[in-house]
């Protein structure tokens, strides 16, 4: 009997990939905290994960006409980046709040670690099941 990794791992594989993408975006925001005119960006994690989960389960929207918008292509390469509305924008047009970005980055890192540990325990369980332990 073949192992279906989509069923075995669930949505956690996509969650780890989205956490990695979000870490890159948040790190970019922090790196440009002093760049005039830089606009802070972020990923809507829930929407991106919902789209990834629907796509993996075959629930994604399908195109019935070539003139329809391809929603799968929009989320396939990278999660949709959105601009963040600043609480207090700076005079030079920069919308990065370094303290909030650091808090978001650390929260994302903790969530990544939790998803990664869950995946690790899944793989450990699968390897034990394969070897008969």
TrEMBL record:
<feature type="domain" description="Flagellar basal body rod protein N-terminal">
    <location>
        <begin position="11"/>
        <end position="39"/>
    </location>
</feature>
<keyword id="KW-0969">Cilium</keyword>
<comment type="function">
    <text>Structural component of flagellum, the bacterial motility apparatus. Part of the rod structure of flagellar basal body.</text>
</comment>
<dbReference type="GO" id="GO:0071978">
    <property type="term" value="P:bacterial-type flagellum-dependent swarming motility"/>
</dbReference>
<keyword id="KW-0975">Bacterial flagellum</keyword>
<protein>
    <recommendedName>
        <fullName>Flagellar basal body rod protein FlgB</fullName>
    </recommendedName>
</protein>
<comment type="subunit">
    <text>The basal body constitutes a major portion of the flagellar organelle and consists of a number of rings mounted on a central rod.</text>
</comment>
<comment type="similarity">
    <text>Belongs to the flagella basal body rod proteins family.</text>
</comment>
<keyword id="KW-0282">Flagellum</keyword>
<dbReference type="Pfam" id="PF00460">
    <property type="entry name" value="Flg_bb_rod"/>
</dbReference>
<dbReference type="GO" id="GO:0030694">
    <property type="term" value="C:bacterial-type flagellum basal body, rod"/>
</dbReference>
<dbReference type="InterPro" id="IPR006300">
    <property type="entry name" value="FlgB"/>
</dbReference>
<dbReference type="InterPro" id="IPR001444">
    <property type="entry name" value="Flag_bb_rod_N"/>
</dbReference>
<keyword id="KW-0966">Cell projection</keyword>
<dbReference type="InterPro" id="IPR019776">
    <property type="entry name" value="Flagellar_basal_body_rod_CS"/>
</dbReference>
């Amino acid at each position: 009997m073949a192992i279906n990794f989509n069923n075995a791992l669930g949505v956690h594989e996509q969650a780890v990939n989205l956490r990695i993408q979000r870490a890159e975006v948040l790190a970019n925001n922090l790196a440009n905290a002093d760049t005039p005119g830089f606009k802070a960006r972020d990923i809507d994690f829930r929407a991106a994960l919902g789209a990834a989960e629907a796509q993996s389960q075959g629930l994604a929207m399908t195109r019935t006409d070539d003139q329809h918008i391809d929603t799968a292509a929009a989320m396939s390469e990278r999660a949709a980046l959105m601009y963040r509305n600043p609480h207090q924008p700076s005079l030079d047009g920069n919308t990065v709040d370094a303290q909030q970005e650091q808090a978001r980055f650390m929260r994302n890192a903790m969530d990544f670690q939790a998803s990664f540990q869950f995946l690790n325990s899944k793989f450990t369980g699968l390897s034990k099941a394969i070897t008969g332990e």
